[in-house]
Design brief:
Mean pLDDT: 76
Number of strands: 18
Order of helices and strands: HEEEEEEEEEEEEEEEEEE
Helix content: 10-25%
Radius of gyration: 22 Å
Number of helices: 1
Distance between the termini: 84 Å
Shape: globular
Structural class: alpha/beta
Length: 175
């Protein structure tokens, strides 16, 4: 009978050790995730060919060199900040939740900007070369220094009746 009891306690202790190890790994990994960054330094060549997608869950994005190609920079994280240097562009950008993305500088998107949901608050100029696509429950709101410009084609596409653009001034213009 004692062997059975000892076996049960060993089994329970083993499970507790596994849980403790998982908690430790979670905390250890979480410590590095909090300060996660995507940095593209000046003179760095990054090409997103065809339908390539660079998915980022990082908190900080510091883009100092243009991303070339036809691919997409897809921001899926929470509380993300994006800083883009002057004269730098990205080919296409997709936002999983605009409420979680904060542009800290002017942004130049050569192709399309797709906003899946949330309100994109513009406090800096945003140039979209091709078209702005707003999916369900997505919108754009310009603030004092925020200015939205959609390229020569001036295409605005919404994939549902709930996608809207709220503009404080008439700033959709040909480039």
């Amino acid at each position: 009978m004692k062997q059975t009891n000892t076996y049960k306690w060993t089994l329970i202790a083993g499970i507790s050790k596994q849980r403790m190890m998982l908690v430790f790994l979670y905390c250890f990994c979480g410590a590095f995730y909090v300060n996660a960054q995507l940095i593209i330094k000046e003179n760095t060549l990054i090409t997103l060919s065809g339908e390539a997608v660079l998915v980022s869950y990082e908190k900080q994005h510091d883009i100092q060199s243009s991303i070339i190609g036809d691919g997409t920079l897809y921001l899926k994280g929470v509380n993300q900040e994006v800083v883009v240097a002057n004269n730098v562009s990205v080919p296409n950008m997709q936002l999983a939740n605009a409420n979680e993305v904060h542009f800290k500088s002017a942004i130049n998107i050569k192709g399309n900007l797709i906003v899946e949901q949330g309100v994109l608050h513009l406090n800096h100029p945003l140039l979209v070369g091709n078209k702005l696509v707003l999916k369900s429950n997505a919108s754009v709101l310009e603030h004092q220094d925020g200015l939205l410009r959609i390229g020569v084609q001036q295409q605005l596409s919404t994939s549902s009746s709930q996608g809207i653009i709220l503009l404080q001034q008439h700033s959709i213009s040909a480039n």
